[in-house]
Design goal:
- It is a single chain.
- The chain has 210 residues and is mainly α.
- The protein has helices spanning 2-11, 27-39, 86-116, 138-161, 178-183, 197-209, and strands at residues 49-52, 121-127, 166-172, 175-176, 195-196.
- The strands form two sheets. Strands 1-2-3 form a three-stranded parallel sheet, sandwiched between helices. It has a two-stranded parallel ribbon with strand order 4-5.
- Helix 2 (27-39) packs parallel to helix 3 and helix 3 (86-116) packs parallel to helix 4 (138-161).
Length: 210
Amino acid sequence: ALRSVVARARELGAASATAVVGDIATLPGARAALESALRAEGFQGELDVLVLNHITAFYGWLLPGNVTGAQPYELGGVSEQAGSLERFDAIFRVNTLSYMQLATLAAPALVRAGQRGSGGQLIVVSSAAGKMGLPKVAPYAGSKHALHGFFDSLRLEVLAKGLPLSVTLCVLGNIDTESNRRSTAGQLQRAPERAPADDTAMAILRAGAT
């Protein structure tokens, strides 16, 4: 899949395109991935724009069906669909902590790009679930709410220090992707019409460039 993305980028006129594979759910992995990108052909240690748009998804009721039958001193758990409490850690490491870490690690390169006038753009893709509570996405919504707190605060720091870096938060709604259609099939009768994925991608890029 990554090879096809690289090929498509080159078809569209990219001066260079490189796929970097790594585990960004850990700090060492995030650091290694970014270092690999900076060393890749065409980058020469520089980075103009960083788009953070990766998630581990969650869709389903959180609490088990037998929660009303719990006995004294009995601790709660999660539904079979939710998996385990350990899953919360994985969701936040991918959806939240990796965003914070990658943005911090990339900040020097992005500021240099802003000083050159060739970039300095940090684009963070969030979700409507990061602005309001929605059913069946409790851990996911929590991970996205945290992004808004962190990057809104980071934006204020950038402004206070006069750094040539823009911080853009993109709030997505009901997007027409295969995974979204599969996980929510027959359950979004009252939701807005699904937005085309390609149009959404272009809106993200336009938002970061303005």
